[in-house]
Amino acid sequence: MENLLQCPKCFSELRRELPNFKCADCSYIVPTIGAGVPIFVEECGSNVDLRDSFDEGAEIEGLLKKLPHDAKILNVGSRLKGLKALHGGVRNLDNCYYSNVDFVADLQELPFKNDCLDAILLVDALEHTKKPADALEHVYRALKPGGYLYVNISFLRPTHAASGDYRRYTENGIKALFKNYHEIDFGVSVGPSATLSRIIREYLAILTSFGSERLYKLGINFWGLLTFWIKYFDFFMKKNRMAGKLASCFYAIYRKPCG
Fold it and tell me: Does the residue 29 lie in any domain?
């Protein structure tokens, strides 16, 4: 998807001039890292895996299987591993560089051309975005008419430090946020049992930390081993109509209008 990139300064075409990328008009240089991964941010954050649910990601896998083999798919956040194995068109974007990232960039300044992507996956990305309105404007711009948008958004989840943590969204808040799209599917991706498991773990880690960050981190691991099993009750809870009242995360699949 390198041919779909655009200059973050003047929005003109970027050309590959090894080892970097260079704007065809303003000559802005986009540096690279590792195996030629372009970097559009000045600072890289850290990445942690926060998978809470026994089947988190099931809906996103279903969507990927429906997309044509030549679809261009941007996975923002890159938290769920193995998506490239499900679809060869997946490319990962994150604001930090590690092994499976293809583009290092900020969602608020998405460096892709207009109407060029068949699908965009926002997995736990918006709560780590300082300006979600700006980010969603870029998402809408880069997505093709008729393209798919998958979102997974936190509701009742303790704060976590990956790339900053700024907000949570209710079911009504999510629907209002994406009112310009056609809704295809909406539901609970991480259920109430995972919420309970995580809150108990966090509470006990705080209680036994005595104000020490080191003891808190040790407690997260220790109490996590004793409470992780609670999340498996979501096997019975996620399809319950009331599950959204205490859901840890919601998912939604949208489609950009063609007209």
Answer: no
